[in-house]
Amino acid sequence: MSAADQLLAQVRAQGAIPRHVAIIMDGNGRWARERMLPRPVGHRNGMKSVREVVEAAIEAGVEVLSLFAFSQENWQRPATEVSALMSLLEEYIQKEANELDQQGVRVIFLGDLDRLPARQRASVDGIMAQTTHNTKLVLNLFISYGARAELVRAARLIAEEVAAGRMSPAQVDEAAVTDRLFTAGCPDPDLLIRTSGEKRISNFLLWQLAYTELHISPVLWPDFGRAELYQAILDFQSRERRFGRVSA
Ligand code: IPE
Ligand code: IPE
Ligand code: MG
């Protein structure tokens, strides 16, 4: 039995599996720099971690896996890095679409997808359509995403409905906001993992993370795999979630 298999057995013995795990995949650049390689090589190696973590999540019985792949702020990186990331996005979809489909993964892209180049936009739409009926795992891939922009968009959608007389100000409640986020219909994350040791949210899911348990892993994303995911879940299982109440 491998170390990762042992950890999975432990996870299962502990019981409660987080329904929704979110990950800020960070540290690709540092992984490359440590090896004196260009940053895109780090991003390419990060794709392997995505594959491994998707499989590990299915094995553990996670229902929703949310991966932060490219933020709205990441558009401000040097053009060469942005274009390398766009090429990798395209390559990932071409290479993995059929396998993800066979594994029963429903792939959903969330973010300001209008900013994607036409080619990437078409691939993204293609894989979402191809996998739309799958139910084993929902894989949310956040691209060109910023949580503040997502909240502004929700506010604007609500304002339009109020202005059109379809909704009254009194009907604006938490559910009204939740229903207008990209994640509408999806349970909030139970566990958020950030790799590479950074202790920041970096504009990810600000609304949805209200009561999420946080796990900071020192491991750089290209080195993150099955064992590290199971370690994070074990850490999650040791927590007491109180949601503002007192212990039972
Ligand atoms: C995460 O790795 C991937 C993206 C944000 C696209 P980084 O590229 O941020 O890697 P570091 O933080 O510079 O090491
Ligand atoms: C957050 O990582 C975004 C993604 C992982 C896609 P960054 O590397 O962009 O965040 P900061 O700049 O360290 O906050
Ligand atoms: Mg980073």
Feature tags:
alpha/beta; Undecaprenyl pyrophosphate synthetase; 2 domains; six-stranded parallel β-sheet; 8 helices; 6 strands; binds 3-methylbut-3-enyl trihydrogen diphosphate; binds magnesium ion
Helix content: 40-55%
Strand % is 5-15%
The name of the CATH architecture of the largest domain is: 3-Layer(aba) Sandwich
Q: Cofactors and ligands present?
A: 3-methylbut-3-enyl trihydrogen diphosphate, magnesium ion
The SS-based structural class is alpha/beta
Q: What general form does the structure show?
A: globular
How many structural domains in the coordinates? 2
| Tally of helical segments | 8
The profile of the biggest β sheet is:
6 strands, parallel
Mean pLDDT level: 98
Low-confidence stretches: none
In CATH, what is the homologous superfamily of the largest domain?
Decaprenyl diphosphate synthase-like
CATH topology of the largest domain: Undecaprenyl pyrophosphate synthetase
CATH class value of the largest domain? Alpha Beta
The ordered string of helix (H) and strand (E) elements is HEHHEHEHEHHEEH
Report the count of strand segments.
6
Structural commentary:
The protein is an alpha/beta fold and 248 residues long. The protein folds into two domains: 165 residues, Undecaprenyl pyrophosphate synthetase, CATH 3.40.1180.10; 41 residues, no CATH class. The protein has a six-stranded parallel beta sheet, with helices on both faces. 45% of the residues lie in helices and 15% in strands. The site of one 3-methylbut-3-enyl trihydrogen diphosphate has 10 residues, from helix 2.
